[in-house]
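Milestone 3.1: sequence recovery, worked example.
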């Protein structure tokens, strides 16, 4: 958000990946082709490693949709995270 730079990262299901101060863990990912729009759907957990708040385990823990990134989004002051697609499904 601050620098307006974009990066694409690939993460395998179950793998923990650090990106800056975030730890991203995709747990499930699939393609939903039942409607007019093909949609990639992923269950993702994101942890802010910089946060010292013990009551907040994840800053995001839920389903993310590639066709509608604003339905479920990550509320973070520095990072935006969007699902683009699932590979090797």
């Amino acid at each position: 958000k601050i620098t307006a730079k974009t990066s694409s990262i690939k993460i395998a299901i179950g793998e923990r990946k650090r990106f800056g101060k975030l730890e991203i863990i995709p747990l499930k990912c699939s393609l939903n082709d039942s409607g007019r729009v093909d949609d990639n759907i992923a269950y993702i957990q994101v942890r802010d490693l910089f946060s010292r708040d013990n009551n907040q385990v994840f800053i995001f823990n839920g389903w993310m949709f590639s066709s509608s990134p604003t339905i479920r989004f990550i509320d973070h002051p520095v990072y935006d995270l969007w699902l683009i697609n699932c590979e090797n499904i």
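DSSP finds no helices and four strands in the chain. The mean pLDDT is 81.
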